[in-house]
Amino acid sequence: MKNTIENLLKLQTLESLGIAGNEKQKHLAELRARIPTPILAHYDRLVVRGKKVVAVIRNQVCSGCHVQVPRNTELILMHGTDIQICESCGCYLCLPEHISPAKPEVKIKKTKTKPTSVRLQTV
Questions:
Q1: Is residue 66 part of a domain?
Q2: Which of 44, 55, 63, 122 sits in a 20 to 30 Å window from 71, CA-based?
Q3: What per-residue confidence (pLDDT) applies to 113?
Q4: Sequence-separated (6 or more) residues with CB below 8 Å from residue 31
Q5: Model-level pTM?
Q6: Is 109 domain-assigned?
Q7: Angle value at C-alpha 121, between 117 and 123, nearest 5 degrees
């Protein structure tokens, strides 16, 4: 079930980018083939409405609609046995640990600095 949510996240990210091209279309088709048909149909309905498809649960609150999610729903997601949908907004729910954080491509260059001396003047 985790793979389905990850594929939905990838699909949502790719479709939100304004990049056009054959390579993108090919990758979108591959992702759509990996997702079960009923889930994909629900995904398409949410996209047509302009809604977010996957929402993260933080502190028992859906990040899509900011409504409290039942603890049972969160426990089911922790066990990874089933996919859950927010009762309020209809987004697919996932836990923060199921999302791989994007690693920034920032390199910090260390430079050597010389200590500066301070002169005190007496008056």
A1: yes
A2: 44
A3: 58
A4: 7, 10, 11, 14
A5: 0.71
A6: no
A7: 170
Query: How many domains does the chain divide into?
Result: 1
**Separation between Cα atoms, residue 69 and residue 86, nearest integer Å:** 7
Nearest residue to 56 via CA among 1, 5, 18, 108: 5
Contacts of 61 by beta carbon, 8 Å cutoff, 6+ apart: 67, 68, 69
CATH assignment at residue 70: 1.10.287.1490
Q: Is residue 9 part of a domain?
A: yes
The CA distance from 115 to 19, in Å, is: 49
Considering the domain boundaries, does residue 55 fall inside one?
yes
Burial 58-94 (b: 16+ CB within 10 A, else e): eeeebbbbeeebeeebeebbeeeeebbebeebbbbbb
